[in-house]
From TrEMBL:
<dbReference type="InterPro" id="IPR050644">
    <property type="entry name" value="PG_Glycine_Bridge_Synth"/>
</dbReference>
<protein>
    <submittedName>
        <fullName>FemAB family PEP-CTERM system-associated protein</fullName>
    </submittedName>
</protein>
<dbReference type="InterPro" id="IPR016181">
    <property type="entry name" value="Acyl_CoA_acyltransferase"/>
</dbReference>
<dbReference type="Pfam" id="PF13480">
    <property type="entry name" value="Acetyltransf_6"/>
</dbReference>
<dbReference type="InterPro" id="IPR017469">
    <property type="entry name" value="PEP-CTERM_FemAB-rel"/>
</dbReference>
<dbReference type="InterPro" id="IPR038740">
    <property type="entry name" value="BioF2-like_GNAT_dom"/>
</dbReference>
<feature type="domain" description="BioF2-like acetyltransferase">
    <location>
        <begin position="160"/>
        <end position="295"/>
    </location>
</feature>
């Protein structure tokens, strides 16, 4: 049998027809995520100034056989890297078979070399072998099916944490879902507070705005408040029946009032009403508080495997804040006044990707 001829090229992301065809192909695949979509990489590009690209592998006749969404991340502090996908926890190669995946990976590395990127990173998806290093054990992903209704969802939570959720639900907290500028402004303020306490620079507000605009009804924000005072916000993405709460903001008062528990439980109900069947808590680093907290909900973590490739004689970049080289920087960042951290953070975080 003759081998199929495959052609890998870059899509024109300014061509609405090409983008629509890619969105349709990606949306039809059960193994795709929001981060594979042209909407994601283009929103990241507009919001951070980092370039978006989409590699497409086609059979000789023109049918799409695989895609690889990319962001070119450049930073004076963290160097250059070609990443699939930028600022995402997934978004690696989508391919019909292994030869298509290898063809996309090979073109990705050729492109990285042409663009003077000493590192290329593939987050999830079909993983290439030749020339790439596979890394697992650093992150866990927490996803599972939603229960049939609110009562079943509550009963599915382990007893100890179920009591915490009930406390949140009994605290008279107001819940609001929407996509307005007001909600985005509140979310960004709380998110900036949250990441500052964790010791990491806040992402540019423009990226949140661009993702919200690009995803339309496939993204929203839930606000949990008490007597008009915001406590918790959750920025969620929806894709192929999966609800993914991706960015969270919270005040110091949120823990006492259990507004995080209330917010996530109401989000599960909201997702079910939207027709979602699964809830993806997203990834957390192994051995951290967020990973332990997700387990208290009854979600079990599945190890994530990423692929990296570095130029000869170079080491792949490392942007894991748990790495020893970053721990001192994290502690210093926490001590910065919040207004200063919020001002300079976006300029630094653009290069994390």
């Amino acid at each position: 049998m003759l081998a199929r001829r495959m052609i890998v090229s870059r899509a024109n992301l300014d061509d609405a027809a090409q983008v629509a065809a890619l969105e349709a192909w990606i949306g039809a695949r059960s193994d795709s995520t929001p981060f594979h979509r042209p909407a994601w990489i283009s929103a990241v590009a507009r919001g951070t100034g980092q370039q978006a690209m989409m590699l497409v592998c086609r059979h000789g006749g023109g049918d799409i056989a695989g895609v690889l969404p990319l962001n070119l991340i450049h930073s004076p502090l963290f160097g250059r890297a070609l990443v699939s996908s930028g600022f995402a926890v997934d978004g690696g190669i989508l391919a019909e078979d292994a030869p298509v995946a290898e063809a996309l990976a090979a073109e990705c590395w050729r492109l990285a070399e042409a663009m003077s990127c000493p590192t290329a990173e593939l987050r999830g998806g079909a993983l290439p072998r030749e020339g790439w290093a596979l890394k697992t054990g650093a992150y866990l992903n927490f996803a599972k099916p939603l229960e049939a209704d609110d009562e079943a969802q509550l009963l599915a939570i382990p007893r100890k944490h179920r009591a915490e959720v009930r406390k949140g639900l009994d605290n008279g907290l107001a819940i609001e879902f929407g996509r307005s500028k007001r909600l985005l402004d509140i979310h960004y303020r709380l998110y900036a507070e949250n990441v500052h306490r964790l010791g990491t620079p806040v992402f540019p507000k423009a990226m949140f705005a661009e993702v919200l605009a690009a995803f339309g009804e496939d993204a929203d924000i839930v606000l949990v408040s008490k007597d008009g005072a915001p406590l918790t916000t959750i920025f969620s993405l929806y894709h192929n029946g999966v609800c993914m709460p991706y960015w969270q903001g919270a005040t110091l008062a949120a823990r006492k009032l259990r507004s995080n528990e209330s917010g996530y439980f109401h989000l599960m109900s909201h997702a079910r009403q939207r027709g979602c069947t699964h809830f993806d808590f997203g990834r957390s680093k192994v051995g951290t508080g967020p990973a332990a907290w997700k387990k208290t909900w009854g979600w079990e973590g599945e190890p994530l495997t990423y692929a990296t490739r570095a130029a000869p004689g170079r080491e792949a970049r490392d942007i894991n804040p748990l790495s020893p080289q970053y721990q001192r920087k994290v502690q210093l960042w926490k001590r910065l006044p919040l207004p200063i951290a919020s001002f300079i953070g976006p300029y630094i975080s653009r290069g994390l990707g």
